[in-house]
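Q: Predict the assembly, please.
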Amino acid sequence: MSLIASNLSIKHEKNFHLNDVSFSMSKGEIYTIIGRTLAGKTTLLKTIAGLISPDSGGLTFDGHDFGGIPVWKREIAMVYQQFINYPHLTVYQNVAFPLKQRGIQKTEIHRRVIAALSQVGLEGFGDRKIQALSGGQQQRVALARSLVKEAKIVLLDEPLVNLDYKLREQLREEFRGIFDTKASEDSILIYSSTDPVEAMQLGGQILVMDEGRIIQQASAKEIYENPISTKVSQITNDPAMNLFEGRIEDGCIVLSPEIKFDLPSHFNGLPQGDFTFGLRAAAISLDDNGFPFSVELSEISGSETFLHVRHEGLKIVGLLNLVQNFSVGGKVSVRFDTKHLYAFAPDGRLKSSPYGGLQ
Amino acid sequence: MSLFYSTLKYLAVTLWSMFVIAPFLWALTTSFKDFQSVTSGATYIPWVDFEPTLDGWRSLFKSPAQGGIAIVEPFFNSVIVTAAGSGISIILGTLAAYSLSRFTFRVGPIRNGDITFFFISQRIMPPVVLSIPFFIMLGKLGLLDTLFGLVLVYVVLLMPIAVWIMVDFFNKVPIEIDETALIDGCNPYQAFFKVVLPNSVPGIIVAGMFCMIFGWTDFFFAFILTFTEVQLLPVAIVALNSSITPWWSLSAAALVSVAPLVVVAFVVERYLSKGNLSGALK
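A: Predicted assembly structure:
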């Protein structure tokens, strides 16, 4: 069982919402679509659901044309980023709604609703009104409604984005657990997110979207290790990968007259010339023998510190362990862990990665 | 300071309440007076200032031949015309508003907003502009001086109000609710009737109330488009205003005409005080 998209395009006036999107998805897999706001993620999910018709291209599911099947006849479930439920119904009635629409017997509906509520941790909430629930509980109801249908394709459109940090963490773990079981059965699970951490944690296959195009599709590990372009490296890292212009010259990497370092071994095959170099924030550290930078901003995040530093035109962000205090404008010595350096061609294509060698 | 502002607030509310209640009190006391009591100056306390009588109220049920004003038939005529006009307007207006809210219509430069404005523009025109075409059209259809003719006219007059209120209401309802219903197996009609409509009750009630108020209080079209066969309540009450005005009957009739609106206002008050109607859905 597979979902295949061929050259899907949707254009509104002069802007492409989807631009020649093609992919193939198989059952039992989790697919995460990652992209910035307005990248086309929701449009793609709605197109799969049948809520939006593509201007060109097509979708097939299990070898059959999906385009001619109306939304209400597609075996699809969808959870939105807003907590969308039916306010006039109780929790139980909300979850039972899609089953009633299908004309399933009452006893079977009851069994499946109770199981779904239990799966999302809402046992005993059946009689409550939706408005009486917290945001996280409302989203669980929406999730239960998507599970109860046992749909062939489950679409989750940034389902955690409107929840507070703690709840997001908790639900993310629970999602993984719920859908590990679910996906291993007979569903295709498609999850969209703007959050690279979320995408990496969910694992599975990742589709990176930008301006309506899929710019890379690979496993989470592959995307992390070998982002095929600077765009992918920016979208799939939080904070975004540091990118800086430089040259390879006489066995050295030259970023500025003062900042030069030896070529790492995985760059040995690269020719001399201009490159865009990439380094994750975690590969930046403070070292007395490093290069002089001045602090622009320091942000404490949990038990880590994001340090924004600048050396003339070169701006980078480092992720430092533990909570550390820096004064703005203060001087620090920064070390680049060149073992983790990426090289991209001036047009943005990956030329060398610490994991994949030459591209 | 807070005591000062609190006192000021209660004083303002008390004065405003008196301002609103005073005409009702005047009408209520007058409805229990006779000619002597009415002409002897402003009095308000029964049995102390004047001797109450039910003559004014009894006259509502007597025919003119018996010295009454026979308000029962005009009252029920008004009920029929207002209820039918409001009901049809709400049904058609809700459907029109839903489509204007959810679907994109384009005819040349005209867009959804222009169509909505076209509806409400019917209410911007002075009624007298509409009265002549209405009179001619109803005349040609043989519907002048009939309840059915009035219902048709009231639908034309009230539907813009329903569309205007309901478009605004539906615009505040997330379209994802409709989409979720479709995904959950409803066809578009089922999505509307099973999901959108039950969640639109507050908007429908408010729109219905405004339709009822405008329909019930209309005098102009009820006066222009009826003669002898059909008379609505506002026309019947104004007809009492003759050279010798029976103030007691007039007051009783005025109270009867206001009573349904007061009841409606109390029933829907909680929906009106919600302010943001879409709150029901978020």
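The first helix of chain B runs from residue 2 to 31. Confidence is low (pLDDT under 50) at residues 275-282 of chain B.
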